[in-house]
Known about the structure:
GO biological process, one term: inositol catabolic process
Shape: globular
Family: Belongs to the myo-inositol oxygenase family.
GO molecular function, one term: inositol oxygenase activity
Radius of gyration: 15 Å
Mean pLDDT: 88
Largest sheet: none
Number of domains: 1
Low-confidence stretches: none
Order of helices and strands: HHHH
Helix content: 40-55%
EC number: 1.13.99.1
Amino acid sequence: PPLHPPLPQCAQYGPCSQRRMSVMEALALLDELVDESDPDVDFPNSFHAYQTAEGIRRAHPDKDWFHLVGLLHDLGKVLALFGEPQ
């Protein structure tokens, strides 16, 4: 049995029915968001994703799965565009 009851967000977002989009579209959506954890940054949030993935690729060229994790690590922040708190 789970340690905690499911969050209401599981029912709301679990079916992935809010909006269909590709990963590239989700990355582009991040650029519409002012990240509360870094509000003074002068470059788009998607740039941070690419920068992270590239840094990981340089440090770990043999771990392609890790490059992908670096690219995707902030995608959950798009939920702020659907009314979720950051």
